[in-house]
Amino acid sequence: RLLSANFIQPIDYPQWVSNVVPVTKATGKIRICTDFRDLNLACPKDDFPLPNIDQLVDLTAGHEMLSLMDGFSGYNQILIAPEDQHKTSFITP
């Protein structure tokens, strides 16, 4: 399904390879995830960390409106620069 939707593409002899990990959902169904922990260790640290949740709550206090973005399928909505795509390779059976 991801291949036909062009979210993933086959690659031969990747320089980076991450493992696929099955995770059981609360419904009992299996969700396929990729373990990028080794890749994360090799990446430089972000100079702009996310704010603490307490800070975010304090910043919204006193405002009449609050906008929430829809995060559904957000993991498929982040474009990866072409020169970095090879780093997100993973193995399938």
UniProtKB/TrEMBL annotation:
It comes from Taxus chinensis (Chinese yew). Signal peptide: none annotated. It comes from the Eukaryota. This is Transposon Ty3-I Gag-Pol polyprotein. SUPFAM superfamilies: DNA/RNA polymerases (SSF56672). InterPro entries: DNA/RNA_pol_sf (IPR043502), Rev_trsase/Diguanyl_cyclase (IPR043128), RNA-dir_DNA_polymerase (IPR053134).
